[in-house]
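Page 37, continued from 36.
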């Protein structure tokens, strides 16, 4: 499986784009007319939850996932996936996931889900001993 670390790869991708002469412009759009008026030939859609209203997409259904990060642990050199739970060590911390809530529009963390997720990871790690 190939994994990337966003804290490393995203700045590298942006640097590659800029080296190739690509201009990165971040904009907010209130409606599709504002997008259609753009002169750029390539547009990257990063509208997230806003895509439903912006593009009048009644089929869009959000799936909310939550993550937890532990402090970096350089000695950790393995990962796992068990059901919805997964653990990936990265340079900036240990990423723990996951949750999967279909139809949830809020981006606010749900502490009860995070607590349940951490309990799952504790159970998994204790089973590895």
């Amino acid at each position: 499986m190939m994994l990337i670390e966003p804290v490393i790869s995203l700045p590298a991708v942006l640097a590659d784009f800029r080296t190739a002469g690509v201009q990165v412009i971040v904009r907010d759009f209130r409606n599709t007319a504002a997008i259609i008026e753009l002169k750029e030939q390539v547009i990257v859609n990063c509208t997230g939850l806003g895509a439903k209203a912006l593009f009048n997409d009644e089929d869009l259904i959000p799936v909310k996932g939550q993550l937890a990060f532990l402090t970096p642990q350089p000695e950790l050199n393995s990962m796992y996936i068990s059901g919805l739970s997964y653990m990936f060590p990265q340079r900036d911390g240990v990423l723990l996931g996951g949750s999967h809530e279909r139809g949830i529009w809020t981006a606010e963390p749900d502490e009860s889900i995070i607590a349940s997720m951490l309990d799952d990871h504790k159970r998994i790690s204790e089973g590895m001993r």
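Residues 6-54 form one domain. Flag for discussion at group meeting. The mean pLDDT is 91.
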